[in-house]
Design a protein that fits this description.
CATH architecture of one domain in chain A: Sandwich
Organism (chain B): Deinandra increscens subsp. villosa
Helix content of chain A: 25-40%
CATH topology of chain B: Helix Hairpins
Pfam families (chain B): DnaJ
Number of strands of chain B: 0
Strand content of chain A: 25-35%
Largest sheet of chain A: 6 strands, mixed
InterPro entries (chain B): Diphthamide-biosynth_chaperone, DnaJ_domain, DnaJ_domain_CS, J_dom_sf
Helix content of chain B: 40-55%
Mean pLDDT of chain A: 88
Radius of gyration of chain A: 25 Å
CATH superfamily of one domain in chain A: Substrate Binding Domain Of DNAk, Chain A, domain 1
Distance between the termini of chain B: 29 Å
Number of helices of chain B: 7
Largest interface: A-B, 73 and 58 residues
Keywords (chain A): ATP-binding, Nucleotide-binding
Number of helices of chain A: 15
CATH superfamily of chain B: DnaJ domain
Protein name (chain B): J domain-containing protein
Oligomer: heterodimer
Distance between the termini of chain A: 29 Å
Largest sheet of chain B: none
Chain lengths: 571, 154
């Protein structure tokens, strides 16, 4: 839906823009490892190629001393491997954006990526730096993504011969709201206006719905149920969708921060068990060795998707040489944990979707670079009891094509042939709730709730004559870890025995996934259902860096005095 | 009075999100853009009638079948078709700029109840009781208020 601000700025001349140029938003799939751009050309989706005529571009940024503005990986893919060995290239930022230095993904990255990631392990942002002229130049994941997006914008503008401002970006289902905020900030830094941050499976669902249009036209057409499994370098998503007549209803969505990078890290540690201590110094030689190891291992993993064995023969310097043959069975054994996690994510999604059994699944849709791995393909088709996968889409292009369709839809494009007569009804990937009942987490919006959504729960005071209550809002992430999104106080509760005032907390997510939390106080028996104090309405997230520390401080300072209790009998 | 029988002030007219929607498009902080509805004209008029003819009060007392515009005996295929038809008109992504998400939320929760055999059976029983007692009492004993509003299956 259109989320419009409730105020106008006198100097804002933005309103005239739409009437003069009905710009079609471009779709961007910014991956951990690769990135692509696409746009609706009036009759279909076109991928935008770079100057080397490539549709897929490596996601990295190289910092150079001569220019304050660093160079992204849009056009110089061939030099990538060389640059990676120098410590001047920063990549994998999609996996690190919006994470704290206590996150295991950050600490693993700090040991395996050939540039500087310093972690203190206290719950603050990690320090990230590129080596330029033997000096560490600091940066942030947001800045790297923004620099990269500037390059992408310039490329798209050159190809389309028009300014590009409106974009639809795909994001992993596992992204927390804090991570979404950071990506949106990167886009703003790059001068892009985000119409949607779209979960990758939702984009794929849109493309699938379009492809199914001729087969099930009309509302009474039979419904096709699809399972989307998307795994790239950084993240893994699963979704179950039911599609008919151009409308895809998502039934369940699940995501996890596992991806090809985990396969790569496991493999590197297996090849060089002592690599953590070997590379801890981060001198020029160590970075070069890490780069050599990474490139060779990545290459080996790619080859193992198509051949039973691969030979790795590299010299890491310092007398460390690796020369061995790896076979597929060894590769699968090394990464057993990753494959098991993928399997359980699919099972969880199937369970959440309430699809009675896997025979109801018509199509298994594989997306992302990792789905080339035979083992993963077998896991997905095995669980779904299918012998074949859906062949209608290109696994490397599905997400960006879906994003371009969404871009056309969000820009108000009409297609006379009806091929934009599409809708994806999305669900919420993470549970949202507040702290109540003595430092407990009380969910208000569950996972897999159809968007837009509004849910309300009634709480009451924990103490006699309690006049204030602290609303602390959390999102549940991977492994039921709670992330602080924000907090505010409800004040002016009339003095009353505990358990009497009714404090309603309402969570609202609109179709563009914007979360607002509202709270109001009602006194039962006062003869009116009108709130006794003005309602509070807060857009989330409001918390920023160091939100883990912040949550602890809030709990320490106000935990018991401003607590709330769930009013069970009112629900 | 039980909370469940009184309309929440978050959805009632004294608390609306209108200030987000009725103002003129202004700032660059917008997250979404309007879409012109990719639907045929007769759908649009049908919806216009639906939305204008129904006040919130009527909406809370009409049955879930009324919300989807189907007969009480409708089968699953008909329920799904009705839901999709309404979604294509009412979903905020389809972009009647003045449409509030409430309409779609209501349609979806009706669909969520009626497309689940267990929930539908429970609902049908409560509907039967309500229809028999509804004429006499304002708070029917057998009908558990608007529980379905907060009780989606997905």
């Amino acid at each position: 839906m259109s989320e419009e601000v409730g105020y106008t700025v006198a100097s804002d001349s933005d309103t005239t823009r739409e009437e003069t140029s009905p710009e079609i938003a471009i779709g961007i799939d910014i991956g951990t490892c690769q990135c692509s751009l696409a746009v609706w050309n009036g009759s279909q989706v076109d991928l935008i190629r770079n100057t080397r005529n490539q549709k897929l571009m490596k996601s990295y940024v190289t910092f150079r001393n001569e220019s304050p503005s660093p160079v992204g990986g849009v056009s110089n893919q061939l030099s990538h491997e060389y640059e990676m060995l120098s410590g001047a290239s920063i990549f994998n930022m999609k996996r690190l954006i919006g994470r704290l230095d206590t996150d295991p993904i950050v600490s693993q990255a700090s040991k395996t990526l050939p540039f500087l990631i310093q972690t203190l392990g206290v719950g603050v942002k990690p320090f990230i730096a590129a080596l330029v002229n033997n000096m560490w130049r600091s940066t942030t994941p947001e800045e790297v993504v923004a620099i990269y997006l500037v390059e992408m914008k310039a490329l798209a503008e050159a190809r389309l011969k028009r300014p590009v401002r409106d974009v639809v970006l795909t994001v992993p289902a596992a992204f927390s709201r804090l991570q979404l905020t950071r990506i949106a900030r990167s886009c703003a830094m790059a001068g892009l206006h985000v119409l949607r941050l779209m979960p990758e499976p939702a984009a794929v669902a849109l493309l699938y719905a379009q492809q199914q249009l001729p087969k099930n036209m009309g509302d009474s057409g039979s419904e096709r149920v699809g399972l989307i499994f998307n795994m790239g370098a950084g993240y893994c998503d699963v979704a179950i969708i039911a599609t008919a007549g151009g409308v895809s209803q998502m039934k369940a969505l699940a995501g996890s921060s596992i991806g090809g990078e985990d396969l790569l890290q496991n493999m590197m540690h297996w090849l060089v068990p002592e690599m953590d201590s070997l590379f801890s110094g981060r001198g020029l030689d160590e970075i070069k060795s890490m780069g050599i190891l990474r490139v060779a291992t990545q290459d080996a993993i790619h080859k193992l998707s198509f051949q039973p064995t691969v030979e790795i023969d590299i010299d890491l310097g310092n007398g460390t040489k690796i020369c061995r043959v790896v076979n597929v069975e060894e590769f699968e054994e090394i990464n057993k944990g990753v494959f098991e996690k993928c399997g359980s994510l699919i099972q969880q999604c199937l369970h959440d979707s309430k699809v009675a059994n896997v025979d109801y699944i018509d199509d298994v849709i594989l997306v992302g670079g990792c789905t080339n791995i035979p083992k993963l393909k077998n896991i997905v088709t095995g669980i779904c009891n299918k012998s074949e996968v859906y062949s209608g889409i290109n696994p490397m292009e599905a997400a960006v094509r879906g994003a371009a369709l969404e871009g056309a839809l969000a820009s108000g494009v009409n297609d006379s042939f009806g091929s934009l007569d599409l809708l994806t009804i999305q669900v919420n990937a993470h549970r949202l709730g507040i702290r109540a009942d003595g430092n407990g987490f009380v969910p208000i919006i569950d996972r897999n709730t159809t968007l837009p959504a509004r849910r309300e729960m009634v709480f009451t005071t924990a103490h006699e004559n309690q006049t204030e209550a602290l609303i602390v809002v959390y999102e549940e992430g991977d492994d039921e870890k709670l992330l602080l999104l924000g907090y505010f106080k409800v004040v002016g509760i009339p003095a009353a025995p505990r358990g009497v005032p009714e404090i309603s907390v309402c969570m609202d997510i609109d179709a563009s996934n914007m979360l607002r939390v509202m709270a109001g106080v009602v006194m039962p028996g006062s003869g009116t259902r009108n709130p006794v104090v003005p309602l509070m309405e807060v857009r989330m997230p409001t918390a920023d860096d160091g939100h883990g520390l912040c949550a602890e401080a809030l709990s320490r300072s106000f935990g018991s005095t401003l607590d709330l209790v769930t009013l069970h009998n009112k629900l | 009075m039980a909370f469940s029988t009184s309309p929440s002030f978050f959805t009632s007219p004294n608390f609306t999100v209108n200030h987000y929607q009725s103002s003129s498009p202004a700032s660059s902080v917008r997250y979404g853009k309007a879409r012109s509805p990719p639907i045929s004209a007769n759908f649009a008029t049908a919806t216009a009638e639906r939305t204008t003819s129904r006040s919130p009060r009527i909406a809370t007392t009409s049955s879930l079948y009324d919300v989807l515009g189907i007969q009480i005996g409708a089968d699953t295929v008909e329920i799904k078709a009705a839901y999709r038809r309404l979604a294509r008109v009412l979903h905020p992504d389809v972009g009647n700029q003045d449409s509030s998400p409430d309409e779609f939320i209501r349609v979806h929760s009706a669909y969520a109840t009626l497309s689940d055999p267990g929930k539908r059976a429970d609902y049908d029983r409560s509907l039967f009781v309500r229809q028999r007692m509804g004429a006499r009492t304002s708070s029917p004993a057998g009908y558990s208020g608007r529980r379905w509003e907060t009780d989606q299956c997905w």
